[in-house]
């Protein structure tokens, strides 16, 4: 809280998300995916506003005698999360897994904890690097970025193993693999998502960037055209803008005088459709999937 800010002002200010450096809590897909549309199932159950110390102590005592009560573990972990005590929340969830190793709600919460901690650390390190501008800070930022990508890969692979129908996670997985420089794996991961209308625009956009990274420029151009120009699946303006900017850049570098004007025309149209965009943004950072059935 700043010196000029009153306690009442601070109370009215909305809490920061983990992406913004706020305290740990389950990460909502809309915070990580930054997509045009978000599944209605993607939200997390709101935690109680002020769980009491007595309730926390009561649950700790209760679980000593009844270590198989998953609902109690989840409630206790939620109380620790709200208090910003991620270590204790993780401890409680791991204890729950000792009783029910395959309990989907507990697995999901542990994965959210892993993602949220990596995001928190990345945010903190980025702020330090921007302030110090030293080689050591830059190396720490690179390490934090790598850790964030690794956590996304682990969580996506785990959730896809449990439910292979979550095609949007294949896009997230591919992007994280791309961030790690594992381009061939990213290309393979995208395969099923390319056939899903909702996922296809972003999937083709990432595919194009991966193909370009391994020197397959002409195939990258085809992927970017599929991302931006498929009439059957209209792409959001941000994706069209990114895809056509990338295609125009590669076509100019390769000297493709026949198609370069077409890409530039499509780029101008994408810019007109997204006037607030001053430059094509990179693909959305990443995401977790929706929570499993039942209260988190």
Q: Which stretches are poorly predicted, pLDDT < 50 over at least 5 residues?
A: 1-24, 33-48, 277-290, 292-296
CATH architecture of the largest domain: Alpha Horseshoe
Mean pLDDT: 81
Ends distance: 31 Å
Instruction: Count the beta strands.
Output: 0
Structural commentary:
By secondary structure, this protein is mainly α. It folds into two domains: 17-29 and 46-132, Serine Threonine Protein Phosphatase 5, Tetratricopeptide repeat, CATH 1.25.40; 163-284, Tetratricopeptide repeat domain (Serine Threonine Protein Phosphatase 5, Tetratricopeptide repeat). It is built from 13 helices and no strands. α11 packs antiparallel against α12. The longest helix is centred in the middle third of the chain and has 29 residues, at 104-132. Residues 1-24, 33-48, 277-290 and 292-296 have low confidence and may be disordered.
């Amino acid at each position: 809280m700043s010196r000029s800010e009153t306690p009442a002002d601070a109370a009215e200010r909305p809490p920061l998300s983990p992406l913004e450096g706020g305290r740990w809590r389950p990460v909502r897909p809309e915070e990580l995916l930054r997509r045009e549309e978000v599944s209605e199932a993607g939200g997390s159950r709101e935690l109680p506003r002020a769980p009491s110390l007595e309730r926390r102590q009561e649950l700790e005592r209760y679980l000593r005698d009844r270590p198989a009560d998953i609902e109690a573990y989840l409630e206790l972990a939620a109380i620790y999360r709200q208090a910003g005590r991620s270590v204790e929340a993780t401890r409680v969830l791991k204890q729950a897994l000792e009783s029910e190793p395959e309990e989907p709600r507990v697995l999901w919460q542990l994965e959210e904890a892993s993602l949220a901690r990596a995001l928190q650390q990345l945010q903190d390190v980025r702020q330090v690097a921007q302030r110090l501008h030293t080689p050591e800070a830059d190396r720490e930022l690179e390490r934090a970025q790598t850790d964030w990508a690794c956590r996304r890969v682990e969580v996506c692979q785990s959730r896809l193993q449990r439910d292979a129908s979550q095609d949007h996670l294949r896009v997230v997985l591919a992007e994280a693999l791309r961030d790690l420089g594992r381009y061939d794996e990213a290309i393979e991961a995208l395969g099923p998502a390319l056939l899903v209308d909702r996922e296809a625009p972003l999937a083709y956009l990432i595919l194009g960037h991966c193909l370009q990274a391994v020197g397959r420029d002409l195939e990258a151009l085809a992927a970017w055209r599929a991302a931006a120009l498929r009439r059957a699946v209209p792409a959001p303006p941000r994706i069209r803008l990114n895809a056509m900017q990338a295609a125009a850049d590669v076509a100019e570098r390769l000297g493709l005088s026949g198609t370069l004007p077409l890409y530039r025309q499509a780029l101008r149209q994408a810019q007109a459709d997204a006037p607030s965009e001053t430059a094509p943004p990179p693909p959305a950072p990443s995401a977790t999937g929706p929570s499993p059935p039942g209260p988190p």
